[in-house]
């Protein structure tokens, strides 16, 4: 499996490798986009989870009407956290799938594939 960090730091090298084997260079951009989507999904999940924990502490200290409002907010937040976690897992699966299907870099000196 390719190193996504190396691909992000050296996309031209990976695109050249794809060209040399006569394969689509667009896959490199798809991998970068999948990594960005995954990172954003993880950040969103972690942010919502932190907010959920903070609100849990507030609920424990609240009373009366304030407590009821916080409970409603926590309930919605719980649903949002579950959705964000699922989105994060899906984004991770997409990235892994792309990484697994991406071929190794062609070593220098390997002749370019002729089309025809």
Keywords summarizing the entry:
4 helices; rod-shaped; mainly alpha; 78% helix; 116 residues
The number of helical runs is: 4
Radius of gyration: 22 Å
Number of extended strands: 0
Q: What can be said about the biggest beta sheet?
A: none
What fraction strand?
under 5%
Question: What gap, in angstroms, lies between the N and C termini?
Answer: 30 Å
Q: How would you describe the oligomerization state of the chains in this entry?
A: single chain
The parts where pLDDT drops under 50 for at least 5 residues are none
Large-scale geometry: rod-shaped
Please trace the helix and strand order, writing H or E for each element.
Answer: HHHH
Describe this structure in words.
With 116 residues, the chain is an all-alpha fold. It has helices spanning 4-9, 11-20, 26-61, 64-101. The protein is rod-shaped, with a radius of gyration of 22 Å. The two termini are 30 Å apart. The model has no long low-confidence stretch (mean pLDDT 91).
Briefly, what is this?
Helix content is 78%, strand content 0%. The chain has 116 residues and is mainly α.
Q: What's the SSE blueprint?
A:
Blueprint: H1 4-9, H2 11-20, H3 26-61, H4 64-101
Helix pairs in contact: 3-4
